[in-house]
Amino acid sequence: MSAVKIILSVILGLVIFLGVLAYLSSDALRSQFLSADFYTESLAENDAYLRFYDAVLIPRTQDQLDEEGRAYFVGGLRIDKEDVGALVKGILTPPELRRQVEAAIQGAVDYLNKEDDPATGEPIQVPQVYIEFRPIFGTRTPTPEGVTPVTGTAKPVLTRFLVKQLKNNIEVLPPVEGTLPEKIETLSRQLYDTLDQLQDPHFPIQVPSLAGIPAEARAGVYDGARAILIAGGLSPQSIQGLDEADGKIKEELLQFDPEDALVDALAAALVPLVEPLIDQSIDEFRTRQLDSQDRFDPIARIAENQNQSKSEVLRDLDKIRDWLERGKTYGSWGALLVIVVASIAMGLLHLPSLRSFIGWPGLTLLLSGGIFLAIAIALRTQLPNRLESFLEVGESGCDALAGDVTGISTALCEIGVDVTQSMATDLAASLLVPSIVVLAVGGALVLASFGLKRRSPAS
Q1: How are beta strands 170-172 and 205-207 bridged, if at all?
Q2: Residue 456 above 50 pLDDT?
């Protein structure tokens, strides 16, 4: 065989190998990377949604507590760090977190695939990748036209938390002395202090003692405290709320046990008193972080951080998805064409020998398929052990990464490694069948060339 033929055979063999690589890559792009299931199934398999609370949401919320222990995500209330976890999981429930993440992934994949927008019938121009806060905060007041009112999870969770805190963290003041009218006047002032503190609750909280006050006289204590509270400049929202809760509050005050009566009455008054603080915190969060539909837009935030407009970022993304579409549409067929043409050229190079015409392309396909099959098997069998070793080595694994990269915790790194492992395993599984097909075609051609060789003496 001449040197020129050897060199051309090597070049054509490399072209065939690269063609097989391009075909497998295009197939993986279409079936894996541009499929939402590829990502969502890996997240679900590794329990990433629940682990995300401990890795990100809870510690980030704890870090946002200011000197007074306030956090905007939990309504601007003063809370202890140990209470953050239950509040965060109550406000943003695990099923809702999963729904939002999967919806964002689906929105990104639909955009990259240029799926049609149901509203216009045209390809999606803006990726529907948002974090929706309407299920958390509820609809705005007044409710925008055409929007179904939603209560949201934040207020009910926060008020239940505050009621529990109230009932478990009270300090009863000593009983007052004097005639009944004098007691009512003094207790009204003490109850006013309690109600005033409930507008921005901080526990433990001091409450007056109603011991020795007849049940029918307790309403007078509350009415006096309420009058002082309103005279002091109570918000119209709270006044309306107290008016609506008036019957419930006075009904609770009729209980036999005076301490239980007052605590339950305060629990009924708590919601209208603390609601303005929660609403103010939510409104501030909306103003700073959300769009008019109560959505956090990560693309707009990326554009802001890069001193760009959202339209500029979308133009860059459009270029990327144009290339992805070309790869998805033409990649597989183009790669097959390259493989076929290069194989025929290699065969023609070895004519007039028919067995070489078939054997050399077959051998090249056999080797290419074998190499990619070995890679796929190695990914499935060796990658988990490699990633486990990465996690176990603190100085060079997730502990080191968490120390070097701001915002990356060890727990978040471990989630990323586990999800990446699942995705790589799925990717390897997707390579097995096409690699076996290439291997089988190459093997068939090689066997056919051997058959021709055995029959040649009789010809």
Answers
A1: parallel
A2: no
